[in-house]
């Protein structure tokens, strides 16, 4: 009897525990050292100059690995991404709500592919919008 209850409970968890609330999706095709800039418009006053600005670019593709440089609000980071699942994406948190860390809004930048002919990288960006307080604007590259 308990196996049946756990089986039904597991099915319900799988049914309702799906993807998060994705509020925005965009695909970038970037050449080497081409900067992509995204502005995150917040509903509160800016407290410093670069608040809400996300810039990223790629500098090297070697052995099926991509070196991605990310500048989020003036804090620079370097990531090495692969097309393998689990190694192909990074998460950038939008808000600093540390008290409720399970409900923080974030951007996911995912490495999809590299085209050898055009030397361009395809990156997908998804915005998981849990609090519905922010607006995303793509500044560059324009389509």
Distance between the termini: 58 Å
- Share of helical residues: 10-25%
Report the radius of gyration as a whole number of Å. 18 Å
The description of the largest β-sheet is: 5 strands, antiparallel
Number of helices: 1
> Would you count the extended β strands for me?
9
Overall spatial form: globular
List the secondary-structure elements in sequence, H or E.
HEEEEEEEEE
What does this structure look like?
The protein starts with a helix and ends with a strand. Mean pLDDT is 79; it is low at 12-19. β3 and β4 (65-72) form a beta hairpin. It has one domain (21-140). It has one helix spanning 2-16; strands spanning 22-31, 36-41, 53-62, 65-72, 75-82, 89-93, 106-115, 120-128, 135-140. The chain is 10% helix and 50% strand. It has one helix and nine strands; from the N terminus they run αβββββββββ. The radius of gyration is 18 Å and the shape is globular. It has 143 residues and is mainly beta. A five-stranded antiparallel β-sheet has the order 5-4-3-2-9, with no helix packed on it. Strands 1-8-7-6 form a four-stranded antiparallel β-sheet, with no helix packed on it.
Detail the topology: elements first, then pairings:
Layout: H1 2-16, E1 22-31, E2 36-41, E3 53-62, E4 65-72, E5 75-82, E6 89-93, E7 106-115, E8 120-128, E9 135-140
Antiparallel strand pairs: 1-8, 2-3, 2-9, 3-4, 4-5, 6-7, 7-8
Task: Provide a concise account of the structure shown.
By secondary structure, the protein is mostly beta strands. It has one helix spanning 2-16; strands at residues 22-31, 36-41, 53-62, 65-72, 75-82, 89-93, 106-115, 120-128, 135-140.
């Amino acid at each position: 009897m308990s196996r049946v209850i756990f089986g039904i409970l597991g099915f319900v968890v799988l049914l309702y525990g799906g993807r998060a609330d994705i509020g925005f999706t965009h695909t970038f095709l970037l050449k080497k050292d081409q900067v992509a800039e995204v502005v995150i418009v917040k509903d509160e006053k800016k407290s410093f100059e670069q608040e809400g600005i996300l810039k990223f670019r790629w500098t090297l593709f070697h052995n099926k690995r991509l070196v991605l440089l990310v500048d989020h609000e003036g804090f620079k980071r370097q990531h090495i991404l692969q097309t393998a699942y689990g190694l192909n994406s990074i998460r950038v948190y939008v808000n600093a709500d540390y008290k409720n860390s399970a409900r923080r809004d974030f951007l996911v930048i995912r490495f999809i592919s590299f085209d050898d002919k055009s030397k361009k990288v395809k990156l997908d960006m998804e915005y998981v919008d849990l609090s519905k307080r922010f607006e995303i604007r793509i500044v560059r590259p324009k389509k």
